[in-house]
């Protein structure tokens, strides 16, 4: 295992590993991120063409099931940022998948697979593997090149398939949001006055540690935890940070993903931890955005970028549903709803016809929830349903003048169908602070908080007149103070001889310090 991981790192980071590594200069607030000098960029460019294409952004595995997985690699000319971007290049990627330990019963279909990396798909090659065995560890080796006849070793990924509905296995995963590149690195184009209005706090200082060039510290912390998978709930990149200029065109939108995933800690993490992805406002269109207005990105462009950049569906599947559910194990099922693409206008008067989910998704959600016999059911929502949130907002289920009618009607349906007694819980992203809230209806919500420290803030408490719960009706066993970056870890422990299956929510800061833990035995 160590041998393969070492190989992966060597090939991902290029051929100059024998040279001393010089830490990237610290960028102070008010300075733009550094750009490699022309000689360095030229050396990287020449080396890429000499040895064929690189895989500068590593490898990513996504949308695990008990018997399938997606694996993708983007071919690049360099393995570092040049002029804030990572230029892609055409070629082919051969994906070869094998179980780490021999295990009978399942035969991998279409293995190996050779996939072209073409400009229309931003030079991303994505393989679809089926016929896998549940609860099994796999290794995916890649070979990359200009043609199928001239390949060299590429990055290597390791992952484990979901246990599925019949296996009661221990499971742990992490949930994140708010991966703001510009705030972490200190982009001087961010409007500080606008930030104060929209975030209820002054713009925090960017990260200044000597390891800044590696990317977000929380990613290294997550890797050490060895979760089964990683859930990005949205705001995975920020098309509108800075707001002027913001990403409006396809090349500008792609650049946001390139600068994000080129960071070494992402490459290390995604080589070992598979992913599920949702999007929210900042990685769809604009802050609090819906589908109205003729500004760019358009709704179609936002959808196209999600399906292109992230391993959510087979490449080119224009009919892919971005809402889905996965039976993780006998004890756990997760739901990943789509909260932007099907919504009514935010400005529409709240009522029976106003919806974040749309009729089709709402019907699917209720049907699949009712059918599930999992011990625990988790709705992992890009946006909050309980909060409280800022009073000024109108784009979430918990917002006054937003989408409360749909929320209340959904909670009523859950109770009428006994789901309130079947261990249903909500996990959400979007909000920049961690909390555990209990609605007057009894339903509970766990907010992951922002992954990046410079993107975190103090939140709104129940009873705050500037919150969506001015009367203080929500109970809040945990509220993060002081602010910090971090993430939510979720664990499911199978039943023992005397202990029933247990669901645990663990809030960490970016360095891994445990801030709060809540354990739930199942309701009888």
From TrEMBL:
Location of the region described as Disordered in the Swiss-Prot/TrEMBL record: 455-482
Domain PhoD-like phosphatase metallophosphatase: start-end pairs: 215-461
PANTHER family on file: PHOD-LIKE PHOSPHATASE METALLOPHOSPHATASE DOMAIN-CONTAINING PROTEIN, PHOSPHATASE, PUTATIVE (AFU_ORTHOLOGUE AFUA_6G08710)-RELATED
Species, as recorded: Gimesia chilikensis
Identification of the protein by name: PhoD-like phosphatase
Domain of life per record: Bacteria
Sequence ranges of Basic and acidic residues compositional bias: 461-474
InterPro entries: Metallo-depent_PP-like, PhoD-like_MPP, PhoD-like_sf, Phospholipid_Metab_Enz
